[in-house]
Amino acid sequence: MQGKSGSRSGVLQWVVVLVVGVLVVTVVLGLNLISRLNDGQKVLDAARPAFAPERVTGARAGIDIISKNVDVADPIGTTSGTGAAEVPKLIAFVSQQTGLSQAEVVAALQENFPHTTALLQAIPLSSVSAEFPALFAFLEKTLDVSEAELLAALQANFPGLAQSIVNLPTVTNGWNDVQNIGAATRFDGTPVRTVPDVRTYFSSDVIPVLETQRENYENLVSTSNIDFIGPLVLIVGMIVIIYGLLMVLLAWRLEPRTSQAIRPSPTPATSPQS
């Protein structure tokens, strides 16, 4: 009886091994680990150029100069900027300090600093954009050309001006409401709507990930690939299943013999005494 119980215990042990193998294979196939790890390897390979030290450094330098551009344009780009309201204050301040009238101050600025004066008078730049439709209509009528012909002539003869004229309305009109940005948010969920918001998103969210995770990324990809893990675990699970199944069958076949071997022999019957 003890031998039979031990044999059954051996079968159950190999059944447990078989079940473990089945669970491993089920997890690998059920979670689609092979495909997922392959995709993960593709992500790591594709991200390798972005995590290169020189590119991370360059990305930070690039967003820093873009940030300066935003700082320059934000006060003077639209009517919501503070620059437009400060120009009259600046002229009044110079007038008060010099004793000149404001008209004389403007005349002196135009004579001595014509480009600066023109920039100050153009603030906000959205007011310049607002004049373009009337300017185009005037030129089209004066030159007797269509708008397409006018733009083509500008691009052919004055490419720098044409580039600024064509793109300035997009910049000023989208400065506080970036076109086609959808429901974009920062990592903390804050909506991204304006050009300064976009600057902050890349400067404070995206690029810091490259900076802080570059060493971790290098440690991950320098060790080995990860796409071999899924097939390896699957193969190990299948080997465990095959081995466990063979051992269960072997233990099951040996069980009757073992039971028979340990069964006590019957005592021969004694004849009655005469």
Give a summary of the structure in a few sentences:
The chain is mainly α and 274 residues long. The protein is built from eleven helices and no strands. Helix 8 (147-157) crosses helix 9 (159-174).
Describe this structure in words.
- The protein is mainly α and 274 residues long.
- It has a domain at 82-123.
- 78% of the residues lie in helices and 0% in strands.
- It has eleven helices and no strands.
- The chain has helices at 2-30, 33-47, 53-77, 83-98, 102-112, 114-122, 125-143, 147-157, 159-174, 195-223, 229-262.
- Helix 3 (53-77) packs antiparallel against helix 10 and helix 7 packs across helix 9.
User: What radius of gyration results from the CA coordinates?
Assistant: 41 Å
Distance between the termini: 38 Å
Number of strands: 0
Oligomer: single chain
Layout of strands and helices, then pairs:
Elements: H1 2-30, H2 33-47, H3 53-77, H4 83-98, H5 102-112, H6 114-122, H7 125-143, H8 147-157, H9 159-174, H10 195-223, H11 229-262
Which characteristics define this entry?
11 helices, 274 residues, mainly alpha, 78% helix
